[in-house]
């Protein structure tokens, strides 16, 4: 699938905009990207910002070679009902709706369109995302390369069997919120120890940014890096011991299982 294909984007929220930016960064001509969005002012804003086109949803899906469905899970069935009689039956359909299976998309459309299911995360918005894709029947190598190619412009991409998408949701999909909650707790605790809100925030955020960069670039495992910074009977060892006493591994495992289970319920 070349970069000179027509791409339709349904939904112009924050994630929709991030994907539009990724398509253009990947090399798709902005004039080949068409957005359909019920909020006219939002659609016009994106058209002005990125040089893309705006059209009604039925016309958009009839000409798109790749169709990106970036709508809320609860809105997906209504959108599929609206487009099923107009869709280009050769188009690859790429769905970003959490919990909605490939079979759900295919059955609602009632067409033979190949479907790719994607679970992105919020870091997509800053080009540091983590996306996992699953392929439905009939997705060609060319279509796969196109999807993985433009998603790579938003961060990193892995391919998993669809039955593992709920585990992906619990890991990278919901994962940024776990990180943000931990930052909140560190900032609050630093203030309780006497630091100002501004200083506590700066210390915490930069510490975690630096730790993440070290983890990514050092080539060492999290276990090795943790051991390297932990002196026996030192301050770090004392803090980590309190984590272990609170059963941090069990806390995290329970939380991720709850996210996985909820993802399965939403299917």
TrEMBL record:
Every Pyrroline-5-carboxylate reductase dimerisation domain range: 162-266
GO biological process: L-proline biosynthetic process
Any Pfam family: P5CR_dimer
A GO MF term: pyrroline-5-carboxylate reductase activity
PROSITE patterns, alphabetized: P5CR (PS00521)
Keywords recorded for this protein, A-Z: Membrane, NADP, Oxidoreductase, Transmembrane, Transmembrane helix
Domain Pyrroline-5-carboxylate reductase catalytic N-terminal as annotated: residue spans: 7-98
Parts of the chain that traverse the membrane: 7-28
SUPFAM superfamilies: 6-phosphogluconate dehydrogenase C-terminal domain-like (SSF48179), NAD(P)-binding Rossmann-fold domains (SSF51735)
InterPro entries linked to this entry: 6-PGluconate_DH-like_C_sf, NAD(P)-bd_dom_sf, P5C_Rdtase_cat_N, P5CR-like_CS, P5CR_dimer, Pyrroline-COOH_reductase
Similarity comment: Belongs to the pyrroline-5-carboxylate reductase family.
UniProt protein name: Unannotated protein
Lineage of source species: unclassified sequences, metagenomes, ecological metagenomes
């Amino acid at each position: 699938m070349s970069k000179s294909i027509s791409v339709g984007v349904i939904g112009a929220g924050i994630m929709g905009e991030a994907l539009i930016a990724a398509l253009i960064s990947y090399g798709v001509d902005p004039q080949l990207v068409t957005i359909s969005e019920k909020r006219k002012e939002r659609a016009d804003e994106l058209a002005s910002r990125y040089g893309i086109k705006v059209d009604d949803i039925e016309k958009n899906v009839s000409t798109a070679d790749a169709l990106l469905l970036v709508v809320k899970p609860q809105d997906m069935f209504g959108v599929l009902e609206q487009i099923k009689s107009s869709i280009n039956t050769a188009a690859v359909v790429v769905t970003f709706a959490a919990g909605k299976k490939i079979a759900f998309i295919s059955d609602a459309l009632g067409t033979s369109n190949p479907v790719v299911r994607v679970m992105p995360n919020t870091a997509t918005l800053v080009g540091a995302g983590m996306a996992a894709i699953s392929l439905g029947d009939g997705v060609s190598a060319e279509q796969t390369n196109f999807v993985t190619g433009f998603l790579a412009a938003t961060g990193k991409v892995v391919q998993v069997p669809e039955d593992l998408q709920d585990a992906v949701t619990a890991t990278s999909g919901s994962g940024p919120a776990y990180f943000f909650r931990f930052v909140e707790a560190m900032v609050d605790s630093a203030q309780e120890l006497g630091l100002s809100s501004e200083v506590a925030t700066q210390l915490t955020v930069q510490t975690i940014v630096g730790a993440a960069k070290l983890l990514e670039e050092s080539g060492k495992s999290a276990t090795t890096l943790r051991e390297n910074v932990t002196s026996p009977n030192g301050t770090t060892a004392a803090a980590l011991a309190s984590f272990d006493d609170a059963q941090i591994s069990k806390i995290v495992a329970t939380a991720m299982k709850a996210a996985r289970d909820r993802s399965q319920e939403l299917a």
